[in-house]
Amino acid sequence: METTRLIMVAVGGQGNLLASKVLGEAALISRVPVRMSEIHGMAQRGGVVESAIVFGDATSTIISDGEADILLGFEPAETLRALNRCSSKTRVITNTAPLPPFTVSIGKGVYPEVEIITALLKEKCASLVAIDAMALAKAAGSPMSVNIVLLGALIQSGSLGFSKENVIEAIQRRTKAAFLDKNIKAFELGYQAALDCQA
Questions:
Q1: What CATH number corresponds to the domain at position 27?
Q2: Which pLDDT band, with edges at 50, 70 and 90, does 108 fall under?
Q3: In terms of DSSP H, where are the helices of 35-176?
Q4: How far lies 198's CA from each of 15, 35, 37, 56, 192, in Å?
Q5: Which domain holds residue 192?
Q6: Does residue 183 contact residue 171 with C-beta atoms inside 8 Å?
Q7: For the chain, how many structural domains are there in total?
Q8: What's the CA gap between 140 and 186, in Å, rounded?
Q9: pLDDT 10s digits, 133-189
Q10: Going by C-beta distance under 8 Å and a sequence separation of 6 or more, which residues neighbour residue 119?
Q11: CA angle 195, 19, 24 (to 5 degrees)
């Protein structure tokens, strides 16, 4: 089976861990071999978090620079920071809603313009889907569902070959009942937004 290497980058508190669990569950439902790395990064809210997931026949979860087939970014500056993991064949899906670090809020740093970030990503990679996942998460009724919005965009891209139905089943298995309806709505909104990006 062909190997697909996915890097996910986020800021602590954005739900990288849940997104990884949902994708792992979806792979199992779809009967696709999957290997996941440890989640690397700061445990506290606000720190940078990165995870690697390899689908298909592979013996390692290590994704070296230039080897990512897909980069899924929960925060635009972190997506840009991970650009070295990409090649000209990489598909990039990113949130465009910034979460500037503390250094920016106290005037010790400068946050790049989102338009510049997306232009750089588009220039270096095979394709780019850039959506305001925070706005869509709020529309779904939960600002915490940015991660699920982005999973919807990822699945719509067809990069993993998972059916929409299998991923929704994975969300149902991995999401607490209190958040399920909002997460399903968030997934659908992300899926549609990615479709609109390609129109």
A1: 3.40.920.10
A2: confident
A3: 76-81, 102-105, 114-124, 133-140, 146-156, 164-174
A4: 26, 30, 31, 26, 10
A5: 4-198
A6: yes
A7: 1
A8: 5
A9: 999 999 999 999 999 999 999 999 999 989 999 999 999 999 999 999 999 999 999
A10: none
A11: 100
